[in-house]
Amino acid sequence: MTDTCVDCGSDLAAYEPVYVSETTDGERDPVGGFCNYACLSAYIDEAELTDGAACTWSPD
Ligand SMILES: [Zn+2]
Questions:
Q1: CA-angle at 6, arms to 29 and 24, nearest 5°
Q2: What letter does residue 40 receive in the DSSP assignment?
Q3: What does the pLDDT look like over 4-32, one tens digit per residue?
Q4: Which residues on neighbouring strands pair with residue 25, listed in sequence order?
């Protein structure tokens, strides 16, 4: 089985990939692998995953 980068589709065997999972109902839900943090960052920007997100939530 060959993993490919979620963002750019490159073969991760050529990289030292970063893997991401989300947690849904206490279960780990794998998002996939990325070539490196640059691809992860690009994916986050494209999907706007950080819009409105913060470690500390405040009603303001
Ligand atoms: Zn990539």
A1: 15
A2: H
A3: 999 999 999 999 999 999 998 999 999 99
A4: none
43 vs 31: CA distance, rounded Å: 11
Determine the pLDDT at residue 20.
94
Q: Which residues pair with 18 in a beta bridge?
A: 34
Q: Give CA–CA dist 3/9, Å, rounded.
A: 9
Could you report the per-residue pLDDT of 41-56, keeping only the tens digit for each?
999 999 888 888 878 8
- Which residues are placed with Cβ below 5 angstroms of ligand 1, an ion? 5, 7-8, 10, 35, 39
Q: What separation in Å is there between the alpha carbon of 9 and the centre of ligand 1?
A: 6
Q: Are 15 and 35 in contact (CB under 8 A)?
A: yes
